[in-house]
Amino acid sequence: MLEKRRELMRQGVPRKTFWITVVRQSSGEGHAMLSVNTTAGDFILDNLEPKVLLWSDTGYTYLKRQSRSNSGHWEAIESQQNILVSGTK
């Protein structure tokens, strides 16, 4: 995801058009991916999926994303109680 983000920035895609999004997979595991806003809709760049998909076609439960106005802040997408999202190696 971070490499995709770097590549978009290298190609001159405006930073305000993409952000990190945290989701819950059907297995219950947390996952982070890159969302990109275009005139055709919001698309997902996901290392678990070879195709670029509309956000609504992924099957994920969306939890939070970086704020579009401040990438250091996060915005809740869906109200979830007692949800822990973490990465593991």
Describe the protein in words:
- By secondary structure, the protein is mainly beta.
- The chain has a single domain, classed as C8orf32 fold (Roll), CATH 3.10.620.30.
- Helix content is 10%, strand content 36%.
- The protein contains 1 helix and 6 strands.
- A 6-stranded antiparallel beta sheet has the order 4-3-2-1-5-6, covered by helices on one side.
- Strand 3 (41-45) and strand 4 (53-54) form a beta hairpin.
- The radius of gyration is 13 Å and the shape is globular.
Major pleated sheet: 6 strands, antiparallel
Overall, the morphology is globular
* Residue runs with pLDDT of under 50 for 5 or more positions: 79-86
Number of spatially distinct domains? 1
